[in-house]
Amino acid sequence: MTTTHLPESDGLDDYGEEAVAAGPDWWSDTHEVFNPDHTVGVACARDGEVVGLHITDDARDNGDAWLAAEILRIARLAHAKSRLGLRKEMEYKGTRPYTIDSFDLPTEASYRAMEEAEFGKPTS
Question: What domain of life (predicted)?
């Protein structure tokens, strides 16, 4: 009978202690966008999933049609911001630029242009 000896786990993931300690916590990133008067806000997780919604009483007073359109407008921006976060994560991890570009992820400048197109000026 042959016995195979496997090394004991050091309790670290495949990236090693240095990578875990040095890098940002990408998995818990939340990307928030609020309209200029801060009556509607949407938060998206790293993968673009909506994880939070902020609606003030003033926003509800504007009517359902306005509120629905505003939520969708802000959610589109929050989703784009999460995709910008993915770009930054890939850049941080050393992914080649042509690979990042193949995912059609927004750049910081293109995201700011989206915000400016919606609001007339950057909100952040």
Answer: Bacteria
| pLDDT tens digits for range 33-67 | 999 999 999 999 999 999 999 999 999 999 999 99
What are the tens digits of pLDDT across the range 86-99?
A: 999 999 999 999 99
Report the C-alpha dihedral over residues 111, 117, 123, 124, rounded to 10 degrees: 10
Those residues with Cβ within 8 angstroms of residue 113's Cβ, 6 or more apart along the chain or in another chain: none
This prediction's pTM? 0.76
β-bridge mates for residue 34, sequence order: 41
Which domains, and CATH codes, for the chain? 26-119 (3.30.1310)
3-state class percentages of the chain: helix first, strand second, coil last, to nearest 5? 50, 15, 35
